[in-house]
C-alpha cells in the first residue's frame, strides 16, 4: 500500500499546454484560437464593421434593389454582404492565430566555452553576453538575449511587452485586432486592412449613387435629395473618416512590404544608415508576403505538458549558468538554443533530447528556421 501511495504521489500531472501558458494570451475553444490579452477590443472592431454594414443594407442597398433594372440591385447587396463576411474572416485569421511565438526555454542556454567576449560577474564567473552577431545575407546583424524567454532571439524577432512573448518578424501589437502582428499573421493583417478600405469605398460610392438616384427621380437639388436619406449622409461621413485611417494604413504597409521592413524596424530607423539585408527587390518582397508558405506554429497549444511546479529563484542573463545548480521547472518541449558555430538557432525535439551528464552536449537536434 505504501508503494502504491508513493507512486501516486510521484505521478507527473499533465495538462494542456495552453493551460500552463506563461504568456499573457487568452485562449478559446480548448486552445484552438489564441488571442492577445486585449481580446475584448475585437468586439469593438466587429461592431464598427457590422453596425454600418447593417445600416447600409437596410437603408441604402435594399432601396437600390428597386432603382436598378434586372439583377443589378440584388448584386449590389450580395457583393456587399460577401465582402463584409470576408473582412470578418480576415479579422479572425489575424487575431485568432499564433503570430509566430518563439517557445521559451526551460533554462538559459548552456555556457559551453569561455572567451574574451563573455562578461564576468563580481565572482569572475562567465555569463552570457546580451547580444550576438549573426550573418544574414552577408550582413552582420545583432541578436539580443531575452531574459524572459531565456533565449537569443532569432533575427527580426522582438519581445512584445503586452503579450509577453517573443514573436518572429515582429511588426507591432495591434489593439484593434487584440493580437501581435508577426510572421504568421502579417499577410492576413494587411489583407484585412486593405479589404476594409475597399469596403469603405464601396459603401461611400453607393451612398452617393443612391442620393443621385433620389435627385433624378424627384428632379430636385442635391442638397434636398441628401435630406431624404440621413442614413446615407451618416455613412458618407463615417466611411470618409474611416478611409483616412485604413487607407493611410494600407499605403504605409504597402511601402513596408515593398521595402521588406516591419513597423518596428521602420520606427527605429534601423535601415536609415545601412542596407536592408532582407530586401529582395520589389517583386521578391511581395512574393515573400503574399506567395510564400506560412511556417507551421512552433507551439502545440493542445499538446500535453507537465504541470508547472513551484519555481526556484529565476536566473537572468547576469546570473551564473552553472548547469549543476539550475533547476528544470518546465518541460523541454520546443526548447531553443543557439548554435554558436553556425550562428543558427536550433530547437531540441521534445522526445529526442539527449544531454550528457554535465549538460554540455546535445546528441540530437532539429534545425530551427
What are its keywords?
369 residues; alpha+beta; three-stranded antiparallel sheet; 16 strands; elongated
Order of SSEs, N→C? HEEEHHEEEEEEEEEHHHHHEEEE
List unreliable stretches of 5+ residues: 313-369
According to DSSP, the number of beta strands is 16
What characterizes the major β-sheet?
Answer: 3 strands, antiparallel
Helix content: 25-40%
Rg measurement, Å: 27 Å
Strand content: 15-25%
Indicate the structural class. alpha+beta
Major sheet: order of its strands? 6-7-8
Sum this structure up briefly:
It holds the Pfam family DHHC. This protein is α+β, with helices and mostly antiparallel strands and 369 residues long.
Structure in words:
By secondary structure, the chain is of the alpha+beta class. Helices cover 38% and strands 15% of the residues. It contains eight helices and 16 strands. The strands form seven sheets. The protein has a three-stranded antiparallel β-sheet, with no helix packed on it. A hairpin with a 5-residue loop joins strand 4 (119-120) and strand 5 (126-127). Helix 2 packs parallel to helix 4 (186-218) and helix 3 packs antiparallel against helix 4. It is elongated and about 85 Å long. It starts with a helix and ends with a strand.
Topology:
Elements: H1 2-9, E1 14-16, E2 26-28, E3 33-35, H2 41-67, H3 72-95, E4 119-120, E5 126-127, E6 131-136, E7 139-146, E8 151-152, E9 158-160, E10 165-167, E11 172-174, E12 179-181, H4 186-218, H5 222-227, H6 230-259, H7 263-267, H8 282-290, E13 304-306, E14 335-339, E15 344-348, E16 366-367
Helix pairs in contact: 2-3, 2-4, 2-6, 3-4, 4-6
Amino acid at each position: 500500500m505504501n508503494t502504491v501511495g508513493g507512486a501516486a504521489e510521484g505521478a507527473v500531472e499533465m495538462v494542456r499546454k495552453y493551460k500552463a501558458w506563461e504568456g499573457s494570451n487568452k485562449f478559446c475553444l480548448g486552445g484552438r484560437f489564441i488571442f492577445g490579452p486585449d481580446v475584448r477590443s475585437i468586439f469593438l472592431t466587429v461592431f464598427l464593421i457590422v453596425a454600418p454594414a447593417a445600416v447600409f443594407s437596410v437603408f441604402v442597398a435594399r432601396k437600390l434593389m428597386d432603382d436598378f433594372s434586372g439583377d443589378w440591385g440584388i448584386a449590389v447587396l450580395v457583393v456587399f454582404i460577401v465582402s463584409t463576411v470576408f473582412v470578418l474572416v480576415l479579422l479572425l485569421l489575424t487575431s485568432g492565430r499564433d503570430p509566430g511565438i518563439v517557445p521559451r526555454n526551460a533554462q538559459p542556454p548552456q555556457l559551453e566555452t569561455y572567451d574574451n567576449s563573455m562578461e564576468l560577474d563580481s565572482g569572475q564567473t562567465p555569463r552570457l553576453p546580451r547580444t550576438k552577431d549573426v550573418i544574414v545575407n552577408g550582413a552582420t546583424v545583432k541578436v539580443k538575449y531575452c531574459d524572459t524567454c531565456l533565449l537569443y532571439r532569432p533575427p527580426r524577432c522582438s519581445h512584445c511587452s503586452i503579450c509577453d512573448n517573443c514573436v518572429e518578424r515582429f511588426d507591432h501589437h495591434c489593439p484593434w485586432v487584440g493580437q501581435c502582428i508577426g510572421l504568421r499573421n502579417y499577410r492576413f493583417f494587411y489583407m484585412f486592412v486593405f479589404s476594409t478600405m475597399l469596403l469603405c469605398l464601396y459603401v461611400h460610392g453607393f451612398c452617393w449613387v443612391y442620393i443621385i438616384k433620389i435627385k433624378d427621380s424627384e428632379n430636385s437639388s442635391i442638397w434636398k435629395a441628401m435630406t431624404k436619406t440621413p442614413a446615407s449622409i451618416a455613412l458618407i461621413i463615417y466611411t470618409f473618416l474611416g478611409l483616412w485611417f485604413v487607407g493611410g494604413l494600407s499605403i504605409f504597409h504597402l511601402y513596408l512590404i515593398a521595402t521588406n521592413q516591419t513597423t518596428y524596424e521602420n520606427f527605429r530607423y534601423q535601415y536609415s544608415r545601412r542596407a536592408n539585408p532582407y530586401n529582395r527587390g520589389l517583386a521578391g518582397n511581395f512574393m515573400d508576403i503574399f506567395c510564400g508558405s506560412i511556417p507551421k506554429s512552433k507551439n502545440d497549444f493542445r499538446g500535453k505538458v507537465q504541470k508547472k511546479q513551484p519555481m526556484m529563484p529565476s536566473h537572468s542573463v547576469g546570473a551564473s549558468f552553472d548547469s549543476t545548480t539550475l533547476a528544470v521547472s518546465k518541460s523541454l518541449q520546443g526548447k531553443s538554443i543557439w548554435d554558436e558555430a553556425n550562428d543558427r538557432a536550433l530547437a531540441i525535439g521534445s522526445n529526442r533530447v539527449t544531454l550528457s551528464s554535465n549538460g554540455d552536449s546535445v546528441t540530437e537536434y532539429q534545425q530551427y528556421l
